[in-house]
Amino acid sequence: MIIDGKQAAVDLRKALAIEVAQLKKDKNITPGLTVVLVGEDPASQIYVRNKVKQTREVGMISSEIKLPIDTTQAQLLEQLEQLNNDNSVHGILVQLPLPKHIDESVIIAAIAPHKDVDGFHALNSGRLLNGEKGALVPCTPQGCIILAKKHLGEDLSGLHAVVIGRSNIVGKPVALLLLQEHCTVTITHSRTKNLAEICRQADILIAAVGRPNFVKASWVKKGATVIDVGINRIEDENGKAKLVGDVDFTAVEKICGAITPVPGGVGPMTIACLLKNTVEAARANA
Ligand SMILES: Nc1nc2c(c(=O)[nH]1)N[C@@H](CN(C=O)c1ccc(C(=O)N[C@@H](CCC(=O)O)C(=O)O)cc1)CN2
């Protein structure tokens, strides 16, 4: 089975549009998201454009702040201070990666935690770690869980989930979410020994390593659910640009029970979950 992330994102946005309309009717609140982009990275520009477009499509307010590549860290912090104090802005997102002269961790820490719709602020990651209610949860990990449940149903308890990758943005939070779902969780990374053997034990395999076609068919247990977070741009045999995930899709598809494709898997869910977080932020701070 191929898990259709594009369709799951459409379904989530439809449900959010209804919620947004209800929030307007009942409380006269229109959720507002501001996306900040520093520089002109082509992929980031596309992601930001899609975020703004989809936010508006579900009836929310969205604005984009484009800053030049030579923006200083102090200038970006000043911009965030203004957004933190603007009551019409419920969600703030700074598109990553930032230019090298800006320290991402300083910027993430400067976003008001209740407006941190990326869920990257230490207060939100701490809440997730403690299993507290009210955390804004990172979008890609949320998308992974929703997509895994499309195949496995709501109850993931007792399943062995193996996560490849330990980033703060995907690997660690997705592992915590799987733990909340009562999975047995193994986190693996570049120094893990016997990686293939560990992956073969997975009922749910999450690949978030950033290496094209890294996960081979021989690493996958028959019937496993495979969630591919990778977005890697490579050249095909004719020199044409092509987008692939971290999983050797063609080979793994024949063995697994279900798999997310790239494109059309986790990526679209990242943006849909961002809209979900913005609605939650607006509701929580009404
Ligand atoms: N502040 C953040 N920065 C970044 C995040 C993030 O969650 N917050 N994630 C990524 C980029 N990203 C969202 O920002 C993102 C990446 C990919 C997609 C997506 O829909 N991909 C499509 C393919 C699109 C293409 O052709 O490039 C797919 O997989 O089908 C959405 C959002 C890094 N930065």
TrEMBL record:
It comes from the Bacteria. Belongs to the tetrahydrofolate dehydrogenase/cyclohydrolase family. Its EC number is 1.5.1.5, 3.5.4.9. This is Bifunctional protein FolD. The gene is folD_1. The keyword NADP applies. It catalyses: (6R)-5,10-methenyltetrahydrofolate + H2O = (6R)-10-formyltetrahydrofolate + H(+); (6R)-5,10-methylene-5,6,7,8-tetrahydrofolate + NADP(+) = (6R)-5,10-methenyltetrahydrofolate + NADPH. Keywords: Amino-acid biosynthesis, Histidine biosynthesis, Hydrolase, Methionine biosynthesis, Multifunctional enzyme, NADP, One-carbon metabolism, Oxidoreductase, Purine biosynthesis. Residues 138-284 form the Tetrahydrofolate dehydrogenase/cyclohydrolase NAD(P)-binding domain. NADP(+) binds at G165, R166, S167, I231. NCBIfam families: PRK14186.1, PRK14188.1. It comes from Colwellia marinimaniae. Residues 3-118 form the Tetrahydrofolate dehydrogenase/cyclohydrolase catalytic domain. HAMAP family: THF_DHG_CYH. The keyword Oxidoreductase applies. Pathway: One-carbon metabolism; tetrahydrofolate interconversion. InterPro entries: Aminoacid_DH-like_N_sf (IPR046346), NAD(P)-bd_dom_sf (IPR036291), THF_DH/CycHdrlase (IPR000672), THF_DH/CycHdrlase_cat_dom (IPR020630), THF_DH/CycHdrlase_CS (IPR020867), THF_DH/CycHdrlase_NAD-bd_dom (IPR020631). It holds the Pfam family THF_DHG_CYH_C. Catalyzes the oxidation of 5,10-methylenetetrahydrofolate to 5,10-methenyltetrahydrofolate and then the hydrolysis of 5,10-methenyltetrahydrofolate to 10-formyltetrahydrofolate. Homodimer.
